[in-house]
User: What shape does this take?
Amino acid sequence: MKMHAAFALAATLALSLPATLPAHAAGEIMTVWKSPWCGCCEAWSDAMRAAGYEIVIENREDLAPVKAKAGVPSAMEGCHTALVEGYFLEGHVPLSSVERLLANRPPIAGLAVPGMPSGSLGMGEDPSARYDVHSVDRSGAIGIYERVAPR
Assistant: This one.
């Protein structure tokens, strides 16, 4: 059921995209659902845009239906939800994790950084930042995808 919901969300997104996007951007389109009042979500989106993704912003007061439809477990919720190439990105997922995800295409539903960890992408500079990026498989099982720690 969760897998069906993620595909339904992807299909809805595909049908709602403008037909005028250049063909080369088709693999780089990322839709971000966020609160219209959230500056850190805007900063995360700006970082993804700077990395070359075509960003489509969907401002919503209530993100719970988006998160549920994407299959984000409640324990993994962050402040925004993005969809890129069939995967969800929940919260302040770092660019390195997104790039690795899209390069390797593991059989998972998406990645999540729950909460709003200090120093995560969009949450300001913190050289001592430590947090985990979680993988969520299509059955909802959660694992560690990447550990972010000072170098």
Observations:
- The two ends are 40 Å apart (CA to CA).
- Residues 1-26 have pLDDT under 50 and may be disordered.
